[in-house]
Structure formats: C-alpha cells, structure tokens
Amino acid sequence: MAKQRIFLVDDHAVVREGLKALINSQPGMTVVGEAADGLPACEQVVVLRPDVVVMDVSMPGMTGSQATKRMRQECPTARVLALTVHEDKGYIRQLLAAGAAGYVLKRAAPEDLIHAIRVVAGGGVYLDPSMAGKVVGGFVGQPTNGGVANGELSDREAEVALSTAAGYSNKEIAAKLELSIKTVETYRARAMEKLGLQSRSALVRYAVQQGWLQEG
C-alpha cells in the first residue's frame, strides 16, 4: 500500500525536524518535503503533490489563509491541515473558509496530530476537539429549510456533524471517535435538531454554503 505523502510548512527548523521524526516513525506515512514559509511552500506543493500539507499558519510573509487558498487552487488534491496556536474561532473559521480540511492546536498531543492527518488524508474534516463546538457554533442561529436553531453544539455534536457532512458513515465516525454507533446516532440527531436540519443532504448543502466543506 502506498504511503500517505506529507508536506511540512513551519518557519521554525526545530519544529519541522520534530514533526518529520514523528510522522516518519508512523506506518504508512512519509514526509516528502518541507518549507519555512507560505510562498515557497505553495511552489513546492504544486511540484510534489503531497496528500496532506501540515502547515503552521503563523509565518512571515503569506498568511495561513492566503497560503491555504492558493494551495487549494493550484493543487486541489492536496489537503491542508492547519497547525496553530490560535484559539480564536473567527480566525479558525477563516482558515476553513479558505479551504483547510481541518486544524490542530499546537498544544495537542502527538497522537492527536497523527490521527488528524489520517482523517484529513482519508477525505474527512478534522476539528480539534477542544474547539469544535465553538467553531461549528457558527452553524447555529442560521437554520435552513424552515428549521429553528436550538442552542450551541457540544464538541462531540460538532465533530459528528462535520464528519457526517464530509461523507463518513455512522460506523466510520464511531471508529474514528472511538464511540458506539448508537452514541454517534444520538449525537447526530441532537446536532441535526439544533441546526434545524432534516437530512444528511441538507447538512451537506448547508456546510458547503457556510464554507466548512469545499465542493469538488
């Protein structure tokens, strides 16, 4: 089986070396390139065509959102996973709207980063559990199809809603989050009720409209 090809972007060489050692030690993963800031990263990603770009968004020059948007335009097969110290939900929503497939806080455990890379490489959307509810709270208050928003999503409800919109089945979400299928169904039902949505297709349409998922 081919290894997942990872590209690293961080302006600190020590951080890049640490990430490289961590990722290369994982079965099925290999680091194929690295860059210290956004512009050369965009240029190399077009050439190397990695599966996932793990990118620090606080770099000199090009902003994380700008780099993400350019990478998605020039190499749409590369999935961008933002690595950030920022916990401001507006900043994170901006990254997702630019095309990032997810984000991990720099204070996260190494195993969480590896898990996030696998989720993103598999076509999913990953939101750091400590921030998921706050970020997806942007859904709430703007219901569609005549629904009525009914409170802010919990972190688990947010994770399940985003994973559902990204195309994961209940069984796959249960495995990813280490929950029972029945528990996933409960979280999904609560999230749908709070969002005022009646079906998976309605959730997907709304997620695309809000910029959480990118069509195509």
TrEMBL record:
Q: Which residues form the HTH luxR-type domain?
A: 146-211
Question: Which InterPro entries does this entry report, sorted A to Z?
Answer: CheY-like_superfamily (IPR011006), NreC/VraR/RcsB-like_REC (IPR058245), Sig_transdc_resp-reg_C-effctor (IPR016032), Sig_transdc_resp-reg_receiver (IPR001789), Tscrpt_reg_LuxR_C (IPR000792), WalR-like (IPR039420)
List, in alphabetical order, the Gene Ontology terms for molecular function in this entry.
Answer: DNA binding
Name the residues that span the membrane: none
Q: Name one GO biological process term.
A: phosphorelay signal transduction system
Q: Does the keyword Phosphoprotein apply?
A: yes
In the record, 4-aspartylphosphate modifications are located at D56
Q: Where is the Response regulatory domain?
A: 5-121
- Tell me the keywords, alphabetical order: DNA-binding, Phosphoprotein
List, alphabetically, the CDD domains matched: LuxR_C_like, REC_NarL-like
Its protein name is DNA-binding response regulator
State the taxonomy lineage. Bacteria, Pseudomonadati, Planctomycetota, Planctomycetia, Gemmatales
